[in-house]
Amino acid sequence: MEYSDFTVEIKKMCNIDLTNYKEKQMKRRIDSLIKRNGHESYDSYIKQLKKSEQHLKEFLGYITINVSEFFRNPSQWQVLEEEIIPELMSNKKRLKIWSSACSTGEEPYSLAMLLDKMMIKSKASIIASDIDKDAVEKAKQGIYTTKGIASVPEEMLKTYFKKEKDKYIIKDKIKIMIDFRIINLLEDVFPSDCDLILCRNVMIYFTEDTKEKLYKKFYNALSNRGIFFVGSTEQIIMPQKYGFLNRKNFFYQKITD
Ligand SMILES: C[S@@+](CC[C@H](N)C(=O)[O-])C[C@H]1O[C@@H](n2cnc3c(N)ncnc32)[C@H](O)[C@@H]1O
């Protein structure tokens, strides 16, 4: 079995189409996982994945790369707080926000804490989604380690987390602000009429063709004047091609009027 046959089997088993991900990078990761599991061919590894739920979970966890952190790239969160959100609020009574590859929750919880701090939480709703069920389960629990909360500002840590032994737990008043869902960006229908969409540190894994398709889907999911917030290595090369206006580094706007 070649890598291309392996991708067909994976699509059948878990509806993840690996051909949308950059092949060199993905194949290297998968090949090293297969070796680590003591297999020498895609065939025998596929057999194991079919037999063992545990191995399938490990595989999915490994290919999805869940690394995240609170307020990742703080200077961009500052722009969000000081410019983007106030401007969105000046046009809208309520904001619909979508954190579209939310991993274990750091990104949507950063948003929720920020909205509470800005005293506008009653005027906003947050959807947070990821393809990875285990990551979303962890996100819902909202339990983090000392290392995990390292980038949370001291004031926010005191206000929004309960400390239990060596764990930091997000308080319920923040948890209830978020509607967690499983959404596969490559297959599923997107939420509509969003005023702010975050899609950060996932586009880098996709092929150019897939990125193009996704930019169009994200554009369609935004409301007029809605903002698309991307990761720090994910600037859109020709935003106007998709109808976006480059508002600030890493922030793109849809304008239809
Ligand atoms: C590196 S994390 C980024 C987390 C967060 N957005 C941040 O910037 O810190 C990438 C996330 O993308 C998710 N992902 C990968 N492929 C996806 C897909 N097709 N649909 C939805 N999420 C996907 C992974 O499960 C992972 O949680």
Task: Offer a few descriptive terms.
single chain, 257 residues, alpha/beta, Rossmann fold, 2 domains, 3-stranded antiparallel beta sheet, 10 helices, 20% strand, binds S-adenosylmethionine
Number of domains: 2
Give the CATH topology of the largest domain: Rossmann fold
Overall mean pLDDT: 96
Task: Give the overall shape, derived from the CA principal axes.
Answer: globular
Bound ligands, each once: S-adenosylmethionine
Helix content class: 40-55%
Q: Strands of the biggest beta sheet: in what spatial order?
A: 6-2-1-7-8-10-9
Order of helices and strands: HHHHHEHEHEHEEHEEHEEE
Radius of gyration: 19 Å
The level-1 CATH class of the largest domain: Alpha Beta
**Derived structural class:** alpha/beta
Strand residue percentage: 15-25%
What is the end-to-end distance? Answer: 52 Å
Can you name the CATH architecture of the largest domain? Answer: 3-Layer(aba) Sandwich
Low-confidence stretches: none
Largest sheet: 7 strands, mixed
Number of helices: 10
In the CATH hierarchy, what is the superfamily of the largest domain? Vaccinia Virus protein VP39
Per DSSP E runs of 2 or more residues, the count of β-strands stands at: 10
- Assembly of the depicted chains: single chain
Describe this structure in words.
It is a single chain. With 257 residues, the protein is of the alpha/beta class. The protein folds into 2 domains: 3-64, no CATH class; 74-143 and 170-254, Rossmann fold (3-Layer(aba) Sandwich), CATH 3.40.50.150. 44% of the residues lie in helices and 20% in strands. The chain has 10 helices and 10 strands. It has helices at 3-14, 23-36, 42-51, 53-64, 74-91, 106-117, 133-141, 154-160, 172-175, 208-221, and strands at 95-99, 124-130, 143-145, 161-164, 167-170, 178-182, 194-199, 222-230, 244-248, 251-254. The protein has a 7-stranded mixed β-sheet. A 3-stranded antiparallel β-sheet has the order 3-5-4. The longest helix has 18 residues, at 74-91. It is globular, with a radius of gyration of 19 Å. It starts with a helix and ends with a strand. The model has no long low-confidence stretch (mean pLDDT 96). Bound molecules: S-adenosylmethionine. S-adenosylmethionine is lined by residues 64-68, 72, 101, 103, 106-107, 130-132, 135, 184-186, 200-202, 231.
